[in-house]
User: Fold this.
Amino acid sequence: MKIFTYTLFLFVSLISTAFATAPSSASSGLNYTNITASQMTLNWTSGNGTTRVVVANQGSAVSFTPTDGVDYASYQSLGSGQVIVYKGAASGFNFTTMGSTNLVANTTYYFTIYEYNGTGVGTQYLVSPNLTGSQNTSPIASKPTTPVTSATIIPFQGTFNSQPQQRIGMSWAGQSGLRTMIIMRAGSSVDPTVLPADGSKSFQWQALANSQVVCYYGTGTSYTLKSDGYGNLTPGTTYYFLFATLNGDGSTSSYLTSSYYATSSKTLTNAPTVNASNLTFSNIQTNQMTLNWTNGNGANRIIVAKQGSAVTFVPSNGISYALNSSLGSGEYIVYNGSGSTYTLSSGSTPLGTITSSTNYYFAIYEYNGSGTGCNYYTPALSGNQLTSANASKPTIASSSLVFSNVQTSQMTLTWTKGNGSGRIVVMRKSAAVSAAPVDGTTYSNYQSLGSGNTIMYNGSGNTFTFSNDGYGPLTSNTTYYFAIYEYNGSGSTINYLTSSFLSGNQTTAGAVAEPTTASSALSFTNVHSYQMTLNWTSGNGSG
Assistant:
């Protein structure tokens, strides 16, 4: 009897322990905060159960009723799209998923909260009354209709911790979206397929596929880029950009992916830090001079030249200037290279003919990089130099040209000198002389001046025999034209009188008929040890 009583007591105790008492007070005051297109927070006042489950359904009311003795698991599917989305003792939770799917924008979700006590087979639910409610997720923002239509990209160099830092200034316009996302990649174009899906959260320096990075995300229309997302921008590197526009943000974001704006820019190479120095001038003549300098630490340098006044031009970073480029105000790029010497002369510069007694001004800018990566050191190394003066110009031309000894293949020219220290004779065959000598230029015999004009004589005399026109013997019965120019000086100082000169022309003699009968009957008489006499019969020649 005692054993039976103890066994009955133990059974009753086990039953009371295994099966808890159901709660008597349901949760209340359900409300919703932090509502977006992909989440919401549920808040309530708990009933008197130790724990509660929240059952959710998308698009229709919850019909599920829990069964006592069944302990349901979190995110357990209950059929008909109903899911346990919360299990615990708290009085609120952040609702972001139905377990296998994320929340959908602009969709109604329905909820029922059941209080319960106990665990396992002892679980006891308060199924009535219960707390129910529903709430819509936020809708996706309207999609923009117009992409970014233009962008200005300007590379420049700043400093960070006293060190050079490459930067790219950006500004853009045209978009109808309230936000702009800029995706960048070094070395190759941005792949537009990395643009996020609507409802996706984006942020600055978000890493995307294949080394692509969101370098800007915001509502502005300008931005200064200093980093590639992993560190400072690399000097002399091409970066590619894709500008996308969107409305909304995060779960409400709506991207215009059908059209976008793409461009690229090359960062500057770091600028030189040491300027060129020690500019000197040598080989100074009336029409040329040589510049010599000590290079700075730039890879290359340009020289800007101007006649008569100081150079004012300053190069712009990101621009490569071509040789002989006009910069306005009479300033030109006359040198672009890596050397340390340059000769300015009439044939090597767009400044035109280099003239005597003229001041030429120069500015030398060191630079690194090429194309849009060019970066210049300023200020320039500058200097100026005067060309040499010409000798005084003669004032009296030669005169009284006389032709003598005129034959089929030669003639002699004689004239009265002007007051120059020397003179040149220019010849042209069958037409008047059409070329004049240039100050500062020394000419040699048979030198061509173009168009058949040729130098025949250069000296201080007043006569010369003309027997070769530079191509061979003269042609009979041909008219040769001459112009005689007086000059003073020599080398680069030579100065010609071209405003007046002596001119004339002469025709060579016509050729005579060749004899047709040779001499004949050669004989010898009066032959001695010291002489002899030759005798013949003449042919029909005149001599």
Remarks:
- Confidence is low (pLDDT under 50) at residues 1-17.
- Residues 2-18 form the longest helix (17 residues).
- The longest strand covers residues 124-136.
- Residues 520 and 537 are 5 Å apart (CA to CA).
